[in-house]
Amino acid sequence: MTALLLALVGTAIAAPSAIRALSKSEKKQTAQIARNQANKQINQRAAGLSVASAESANSAGVAAGVSDGAIGTDQLSSAIPAASASANSETITSGAHQIVPLNSEEFDTANMHDNVFDNSRITVPVDGIYAVSAGVEWEANPDGARLLRLQTNGSEAIATANQPPVDAATAQSVTTFVALAAGEYVEMLIFQDSGVPLDLSPPDGASLQVVWQAPG
Q1: pLDDT, tens digit, for every residue of 108-158?
Q2: What is the pTM of this model?
Q3: Which domains does the chain have, with CATH numbers?
Q4: CA distance 164 to 166
Q5: CB burial of residue 69 (10 Å; 0-12, 13-18, 19+)
Q6: Distances (CA, A) of 4 to 11, 13, 15
């Protein structure tokens, strides 16, 4: 009986000893293998990454173990909100402020603009700091004044350019940076008081660009 008890105790002691049998170098090798497998899976997924929003793009790069070059411009460029829309020709009444409808697009990565519905607006899909630029070219007329204004949500002015006209076509442009929340929109408003209707000169006409820059 004593011999049997000793045998059972010996077996019980041997079991945990077997669990701790790995040497330090073997433990390091095992841990490295696990890390390598995790990195491999991360890199495989990153190769086909489609970032749903600029906020996701901002956090994607901090994932531990993503190797250099695994996420490049091919994966991120289509995920960064950016849009450019324009109007090739428009007639502006003298003495009246007018929101410019934009009926064509140069690019739109995040469905920020529609050529028909509310087409004066570029609407941002995520919170952030955005670069906003606009330009307009008026037909030649030396009288009155010319105004170009960027505004958000239908009323809040964020940048304005005032310019006296010249005998040739008058070009105006304005650029600013603004913090916007998802769902807010940008428009361009223009004004002239020459005393007669003026056309926006094709092919430049009027254009508006909104591009995400950073979290905000």
Answers
A1: 999 999 999 999 999 999 999 999 999 999 999 999 999 999 999 999 999
A2: 0.67
A3: 2-76 (no CATH), 82-214 (2.60.120.40)
A4: 7
A5: exposed
A6: 11, 14, 17
